[in-house]
Design a protein that fits this description.
Layout lengths: L5 E2 L3 E9 L3 E8 L4 E8 L7 H16 L8 E7 L2 E7 L6 H6 L6 H20 L12 E3 L5 E3 L12 H4 L11 H4 L6 H17 L9 H10 L5 H4 L5 H10 L11 H6 L11 H23 L1
Antiparallel strand pairs: 1-2, 2-3, 3-4, 4-6, 5-6, 7-8
Length: about 300
Amino acid sequence: MQARQVLGGRYELRGILGRGGMAEVHDGWDRRLGRPVAVKLLYPTAEAQPDTRRRFATEARAAALVNHPHVVAVHDTGVHEGRPYIVLERLPGASMADVLARGGPMPAEHVRAILRDVLAALGAAHATGVLHRDIKPANILFTTFGGVKIADFGVAKSADSPHTLTNRVFGTMAYLPADRIAGRPATASDDLYALGVVAYEALTARRAYPQENLAALADAIGAARLTPLSALRPDIDPALRATVERAMSPDPRWRFGSAAQMRACLDPPAKRPRRAGGVLAAAAALLAVAVLAALVVVA
């Protein structure tokens, strides 16, 4: 039996959890602390590319900078035989992409709860100057207890990102607004737009823009050719529907400017209870009318 590869004399690599454009993610074991971890290891073919190495380093710094319960934690980084790696918190649950692949729309309240968690994480990231820039179902991971954490800051932008990276369009096109695809600099609003697209997909069990050809996809996003959420899920309450639609608005002036702003619109307005004083006053008035009527009858 072939011996398992160990990174840094500490992290034992096991099976492959997934592969991306510049790295593969391994199921790992931390021998020193005796706990499961996820190890993201740069491909050998990518290690010689300075731009890719910078992006990988940016991911580690950006994710470590955002210390939040709904962000996958970074435990360690290192280099093994010339290949950089990042050691991450290992979550036993599936991704949102896995759940959606099983088919069927998700319950509205479940989607609302996911949005709350992700918005809390994005609010913390944006407050530290970090933009995720690749919010999509595959990067939203479920925890053991049903909550979610955002992962993969591989194309994140932070205050110390190299200028050679900040003027390029990164991310997954299906979750980008038309003005960003056209080359506008990334903003916090783009993460919120992407989250709106994710919510639309979760609520309808269909992609907002399903075109596979990139040119056709860009055209569809630019023209906002989208089936209204109300036509697909008429059972959704107005607050959730309006939040998703506003986040995905083709007009950047109408979109949310902050995670807190989007969070404030997410829940339906609470029914205001009738004030006790008003009820008592009404009862007293009715009693007075009744007494007056009785006196008139007696007279």
